[in-house]
Amino acid sequence: MTDPEEGEEEPRSEGDREGQAASDGATRSQPMRAFVLHPDIRTERSRRLPDLRLAEAVSLAAALPDMEIVGQEVVRLPRAQPGLLFGTGKVEELKARFKGLDVGLVLVDGPVSPVQQRNLEKEWGVKLLDRTGLILEIFADRARTREGVLQVELAALSYQRTRLVRAWTHLERQRGGLGFVGGPGETQIEADRRAIDEQVIRIRRQLDKVVKTRELHRASRRKVPFPIVALVGYTNAGKSTLFNRMTGADVLAKDMLFATLDPTMRGVTLPSGRKVILSDTVGFISDLPTQLVAAFRATLEEVLEADLILHVRDIAHPETAEQAADVAEILQSLGVKGATPQVEVWNKLDLVEGATHEQLLAQAAKSETIFALSALTGEGLPELLEAVSATFDEEKTERQLTLGFADGRRRAWLHAEGVVTGEAETEEGHRIDVRWTARQEKRFRDL
Question: Where along the sequence do coiled-coil regions lie (predicted)?
Fold first, then answer.
């Protein structure tokens, strides 16, 4: 008689088997050993420093579960090689390092073509992800709501469709077709593309329903006289921590890239007694994959509906100015209107010490649209809340100004204050339409 513990098990349901498999996988799985590379290509220099770009890529990799970063390197290249991205000597050198470190995954912080990915995986004997693939993996791991899951799936399918070449030679095999009429049947790669296209259509239909539901919610909110305040900013700038501090909510807030994917909205009562709706959105990042921008457009439409945008910046980050420029570009690409008032929130003031701390406070005090604070400690938050109240309480008037071409300082001030609604160049100078408060008008006249 077979011992019942060693014999055959009774038939189990599909769910039980999947649950057991997941449990077994959890007990047996080892962290994936990953190596991060940042190609610093001389012909494609960005405004970012390569070492800081590498550090951001390592942070992205660390945001994935069960990931152990065993090495990182900036690889300087005169130009990208079409077949292998790197030169053959560098490929061999890295192959030896990966073997010695027992690397199972290589993350390349930049675009890698399907052919380059296939060739490098073959040379190194490892799995390879480029920057887009890595961000997609993080989004797939983090999405929680139905909408978030659908958006990530749509972005992933758009990405996969361009990379069918990496599934090796089986994609060139032909199948189907009886062969009587002559001419080839459908190739595997064509069938795979068709299958992906069908999935994309299905997901888009489901997303359309979600978008319609979201639009109904927005329409019902418009009937309630509560302004919408949207938090935007670079990923890990501290938006969710600020959101929690302002609303008393308990949204996931971690020192991690893309901790928030699904938009969250809460009501907030400001010091003046006015109620507003605060919206926490997905963080932006440089070189955000176009597939993700398109897929998350429905979510980011909350920003387009906002009556006030709070641009949260990690003021302690060495590239805070570059991050702010990336956010501004994405907001512009989304079609955020110039008339929508924006306030800069210089967050993480608790990480800045001494003279720099005082300098930032003094600099912020000179502007009505900049507030330096720490969402973690609450320093500076009352002033921000007062300003948000004032934004909706103060009456605004519209004016048309004409500034001479030499009057660049006052023109720059108007743009910095976010009061410009339109601008045209004339023979006399710049004709500028503004919408401002009485206080802003007085400060402009005093310049």
Answer: none
